[in-house]
Design brief:
With 276 residues, the chain is an alpha+beta fold. Helices cover 17% and strands 34% of the residues.
């Protein structure tokens, strides 16, 4: 199957403003590019592409004053298979974890494990370690947190989500990540595209989707506490300790996001969208 995805952003900057954008995708197993997500700007602006400490592809640029449209429209071939399940994947003792994984056990900006430690062990410490314990964490978050865009708040931490019982997809992911880390299970935040493929279409406008990866059985496995089901056609953009590491845009000066559009759809017979 083919999946068409992309974005259209318009930033307005009153003065020249340096920015970092994190919008390039990293395809997973069973995915190949038909047309890559090449970034296009409405103005002649030099772009510098680099890889950050988490392996994410970043674009560095300086927007001149005034409005600038930034777009990409891409096509990938996807296996059409749901995300895998590995019921036998086991947790690792901390002493056996690779060095590069240890950072994903620590408290971070939005995943304040020190606040949730007692609750995590009370709720999940008695469960057998492994895949099913992580799934139990996702089940808890999915059942106890209400999703609504009206609840969005850029400063909400995992513990605040736990006590407020409301949030958006990034809050679901932050809470599940923090609970895993409390139990010495490495977990990291992921963001990307997730279309309504194989599920009823959502009425809300499309946005980037937050989820998490957990280190079990010697590899990273994806979990989605917001939707709490294996999905088809997820396309990842970036990974980090939490959402603070994977912001789609970071502006070092005044910048107003005037337009924000994201799309990702099954597209076996649909032409690429023309924007601008």
């Amino acid at each position: 199957m083919h999946i068409r995805y992309g974005y259209e952003l318009i930033f307005s900057t009153p003065v020249p403003t340096h920015m970092i954008l994190m919008l390039h995708t990293h395809l997973g197993r069973g995915q190949t590019y038909v047309m890559a997500d090449k970034m296009q700007l409405s103005r002649n602006v030099p772009l510098q592409v680099y890889t950050d400490g988490f392996g994410n592809t970043c674009t560095r640029l300086e927007l001149p004053s005034g409005p600038t449209r930034i777009t990409a429209d891409a096509l990938v071939e996807d296996s059409g298979v749901k995300e895998p399940i590995a019921l036998s994947a086991q947790e690792h003792p901390v002493r056996e974890l690779p060095f590069e994984v240890l950072q994903f056990l620590l408290s971070s900006r939005y995943c304040d494990t020190e606040v949730l430690m007692a609750e995590a062990w009370r709720l999940f410490g008695h469960l057998p370690p492994g895949w099913n314990r992580v799934q139990a964490i996702c089940d808890f978050v999915h059942q106890h947190v209400s999703f609504d865009y009206r609840y969005a708040r850029s400063t909400r931490t995992a513990s605040e989500t736990f006590f407020e019982r409301q949030g958006v997809c990034r809050d679901f992911a932050h809470l599940a990540i923090a609970l895993c880390r409390c139990l010495n299970i490495p977990a990291r935040y992921c963001t990307g595209y997730l279309g309504d493929i194989g599920v009823p279409a959502a009425e809300a406008p499309m946005d980037f989707a937050g989820c998490m990866e957990v280190y079990l059985g010697g590899q990273w496995h994806l979990f989605d506490p917001r939707n709490n089901e294996r999905r088809i056609g997820r396309i990842l953009i970036a990974r980090g300790r939490d959402a603070g590491d994977v912001a789609i845009s970071t502006a070092f000066g005044p910048a107003c996001l005037q337009l924000f559009k994201v799309w990702t759809d099954q597209a076996d017979s649909t032409p690429l969208r023309r924007v601008g």
